[in-house]
């Protein structure tokens, strides 16, 4: 798809929010081209990066007359790099279906982009593993990929829950997930499932799904498992899936029980706090306490849900 108006405006917004501060090198999947007939968007992007003068070449592009994305990045002060199978524009020669990231390029880049490349690669595992390995800790990933329809465009379209799972298993910080109404429009809507009630779908629909993440830890890539099915599989299956938690790589089976213990601990704390509050109220109002000490299997109004009373004795409810 290349870098069109939606990406130009996204970069401007990310820069203004500080997400692209300190980034000096980019690695793109595929040797990309750039186009944006709205000159004001290009000027505004350059201004956000502190550039007051804009090369006229960057201001005279259309979808039919594109320029190499290298020109745009270099105008912003970012050294350009990309991977492709043909070595075009000095790209790192790499087939994302088969090849691993060369050691010299691992953990090197502050910005790693996927502007409509991954949907053309059958080996999805290798694509997203490669992006993870290209990025340094603190580096930003930007994906702009097909969401709805895009008939016969590539092998795949993507879902928001995929990028949510990718972030959860690798402990990425999610900077945002958005829907682009069209690949020619410089506008985004934050993702919400209710949007599907308002999107017009037909054979020519080209909604974009845009996601931005930040890599937080220098750990190996973790393959995500779709969250809604996690509790339906045996522990031995989950144990094959690793997850980064607070900078540690844990197997997903362990994470399952750590999570469960954490939830229970919070529930116990809530119950204990409620019990303490209930005792305090009784100590402050002994008249109500005396009235409640009757032989009954019912819980007095205002009493703790953990207790019942019987013959003046308190018994912990099982």
Word description of this protein:
The protein folds into 2 domains: 5-224, Vaccinia Virus protein VP39 (Rossmann fold, 3-Layer(aba) Sandwich), CATH 3.40.50; 252-316. Helix content is 30%, strand content 22%. It contains 8 helices and 14 strands. The chain has helices spanning 5-16, 39-48, 69-75, 124-134, 160-170, 235-238, 252-284, 286-292, and strands at 25-29, 33-34, 67-68, 79-84, 92-93, 109-115, 135-146, 173-180, 189-190, 208-214, 242-245, 248-251, 307-310, 313-316. Strands 5-4-1-6-7-10-8-9 form an 8-stranded mixed beta sheet, with helices on both faces. The longest helix is centred in the last third of the chain and has 33 residues, at 252-284. Mean pLDDT is 84; it is low at 288-318.
What layout of secondary structure does this protein have?
Elements: H1 5-16, E1 25-29, E2 33-34, H2 39-48, E3 67-68, H3 69-75, E4 79-84, E5 92-93, E6 109-115, H4 124-134, E7 135-146, H5 160-170, E8 173-180, E9 189-190, E10 208-214, H6 235-238, E11 242-245, E12 248-251, H7 252-284, H8 286-292, E13 307-310, E14 313-316
Parallel strand pairs: 1-4, 1-6, 4-5, 6-7
Antiparallel strand pairs: 2-3, 7-10, 8-9, 8-10, 11-12, 13-14
Order of H and E elements: HEEHEHEEEHEHEEEHEEHHEE
Categorize the overall geometry: globular
CATH topology (level 3) name of the largest domain: Rossmann fold
Rounded Rg: 27 Å
Look at the structure and name the CATH superfamily of the largest domain. Vaccinia Virus protein VP39
- N-to-C terminal Cα separation, in Å? 61 Å
Q: How can the largest sheet be summarized?
A: 8 strands, mixed
- Can you count the helices? 8
Strand content: 15-25%
* Count of β-strands: 14
What low-confidence regions span 5 or more consecutive residues with pLDDT below 50?
288-318
